Amino acid sequence: MKLSFKSITAALAVSGVLATIPLQVQAADEQFVPLFTYRTGSFAPLGIPWADGKIDYLKLVNERDGGINGVKLAFEECETAYATDRGVECYERLKNAKGGASGFDPQSTGITFAVSDKAPIDKVAIETVGYGLSQSANGSVFKWNFPLLGTYWTAADVMIQDIAKKLGGEDKLKGKKIALVYHDSPYGKEPIPLLKARAEANGFELQLYPVTAPGVEQKSTWLQIRQKRPDYVLLWSAGIMTPTSIREAQSTGYARDKIYAIWWAGSEGDVKDLGQVAKGYNAITIHNTGESKGKIYDDLKTHLYDKGLESGKDTKGSLAYNRGMVISMLQVEAIRAAQEKFGKGQHMTPEQVRWGFENLDLTEDRLKEIGFDEMLRPVKTTCQDHMGDDWARIVQWDGNKFNVVSDWYQSDKQYVDPLVKSEAEKYASEKKITPRDCAAES
């Protein structure tokens, strides 16, 4: 039988449509979560447990729950080595993959800066738990950015609060000298505006010590610290820069209990090889310590560990691993919130997931239900507030493990809010963004 050209063309057209059906079904049955990681490079000591925690929570949701209301989570790692150009390449490659990315956790302030201009065009959320652009807490300007649980301004302010408490009140800060030793990058520079505002208001002298990446050469920095003798040192480091700082502090005789490190410099991997050398070292955290306990770890043992499905046998239970789980949990809960509005058991588009991030409401009961009640405080986001509640506390290394040594703090809004407002307005003006009317949207 001979087929006409028209018949052949029609048959090919039908076969072409049929060939796309499995991909469409897969997209409907799965929700894609891209994972930026840095298992290589100078920040790898932090990046490895962070990535393992992120992946293991996604695996747990699939194994324990069968996904989110039956929608399985698909994920793919993309190695950035903390390099901004590689992060942008990962973003471009994965933003439209498998039905669209359910948001990005760039794991780098520099990458966050680079993709924040792209996100409104591509309509995909940027999730930065504890980092990123601090002013992006303002959801009316930063529709697509979510610096959940706290920013570097949160961290810097809480450090100052804890120092003031130890001194006997904020009035005792006057005349003190506080140094910032920071990674000379967008990440390291983020706390400076808050610390300058605090220094002016509280009357302490702020000393700034930038450290060139990757941070393995710090002798001159700590010799200056020995000469100028600040009362406290705030450390904004990550990866191999952190143990280098602690060793230099020891060699110049600077007391480790006078050092306060940002959360990315406050995990077991940063200090375990130093042992007693790091004793007294303080760090800030947005969740409790890295103890392997509670319902979340019971579930991990049953559904992953006992089956040999965990991503990192040596990283589980660490502070960085737990933080990775927190990040993925917030991602999952944003997808779940989106499903509540747009359709349970359905694949959510990137725009719908963005709505979920903006409408998170993790109550104490909900945190208990999913096993995070011993790790986090409740958090709620809105159109205006893309950060939610910014609880943080101080942990201290005793030579063997980190212990919680403070109550929960929240940032002092009299210092943080004016910065968020002014810097968000400046950003909107520079980028020609018309802020949303959140009152009208609600």
Automatic annotation (TrEMBL):
The keyword Nuclease is annotated on this UniProt entry: no
Signal peptide: 1-27
Signal in keyword set: yes
InterPro entries attached to this UniProt entry: Leu-bd, Peripla_BP_I
Pfam families: Peripla_BP_6 (PF13458)
Annotated CDD domains: PBP1_ABC_ligand_binding-like
Domain Leucine-binding protein: 33-399
Keywords: Signal
Similarity comment: family membership: Belongs to the leucine-binding protein family.
Protein name: ABC transporter substrate-binding protein
